[in-house]
TrEMBL record:
It comes from Paracoccus aminovorans. Keywords: Molybdenum. It comes from the Bacteria. One of its GO terms (biological process) is molybdate ion transport. Residues 2-67 form the Mop domain. This is Molybdenum-pterin binding domain-containing protein.
Amino acid sequence: MKLSARNILPGTVTEIVTGAVTSHVRIDLGGSTVTAAITNEAVKELGLKVGSRASAVIKASDVMVGVDD
């Protein structure tokens, strides 16, 4: 599979919280964690389980920056 996204961050699934329609999947990137909201169907199709290797693929047109007051 080829992707246009350039931010592909490999890691390990550490938690899957399943809701009525979507799941929140946490991926440990080796010290940092990213959380993705995906459909429950996608979790099943990808065979995601805690401990699975997975990549966070980030494609965003905007990035927001914040600082403490």
